[in-house]
Amino acid sequence: MQPRMQMTSIDVIASALEPMTPALGRMSSPDGAVTLMLSDLADAAAAAQALGPERWEQVVRDHHLLVERLVASHDGQVVKFQSDGFLASFRSAHAGLHAALELQRTFAAGPADQRSLAIRIGVHSGFVLGNPDQLMGRNVVLTARIAGQARGAEILVSSSAKEYTESDSSLRFEEHGEYHFKGLHGEHVVYTLLWR
Question: Cα separation of 68 and 77, whole Å?
C-alpha cells in the first residue's frame, strides 16, 4: 500500500476551481491566448509547522499582498488564492514570465526569517474555452501539472509560453524534460526559466 500523498495548494486550486468569470477572456493576447501562472510555497506543511500558526498566517498574508501587487504591475489578475497558492492570468506570455521572475527574485530577497521558504511556479500559455462553464479547462490542468513538477525556487514553463517569448533575449531557458501528464494527451516539453 502506497503512502497517501499530502495535497499541496496547487492540487487544491486545480481541483477546486469553479467556472471563472468571463472577464478572464478579456485577459488574452491579441491572438486569444491567455498565460496562466500557478504557484505555491514549497513544503508548506513543514514550514507552517516550523513557524507556528500565527507566524504562518502572517507569512501567507504577506505573500498574498506581494503576489497581488506584482501580478497587477504586469497587467495580470489573480484569479484565485488558496492558502499559500494562487492562480493568475496575464494578457501575454512576456508579462507572465517577467512577473514570475520578479516574484522569485523579490521572494528570495525577503525578510531573513522567510529565506528558508521558497516558491514554485508553473506557467502555460494557451486558449481559453468559449463555454463559460469550462472557461479554463485543459489549460488549468496543464498549468497545474507543470507547477506540480517544480521544486522550490523553480519556474517551469510550457513549450507554448516559451515559444511566445523567444524574441525576448532577457529570458533564459533550459529544457527540463518531456512529460506525459495525467489526464492530458501527448508529450509535453517543459522548460526551466532561469532567474538567478
Answer: 8
Answer yes or no: are the C-beta atoms of 181 and 110 closer than 8 Å.
no
Residue 27 CA to its chain's centroid (Å): 16
* Inside any domain, residue 89: yes
CA end-to-end distance (rounded Å), the chain = 40
Residue position matching grid coordinates 509560453 = 161
Q: Which domain holds residue 77?
A: 30-194
What does the pLDDT read at residue 98? 97
Residue 9: per-residue pLDDT: 67
- What's the CA gap between 14 and 17, in Å, rounded? 6
Within-domain flag for 13: no
Average pLDDT of span 96-113:
90
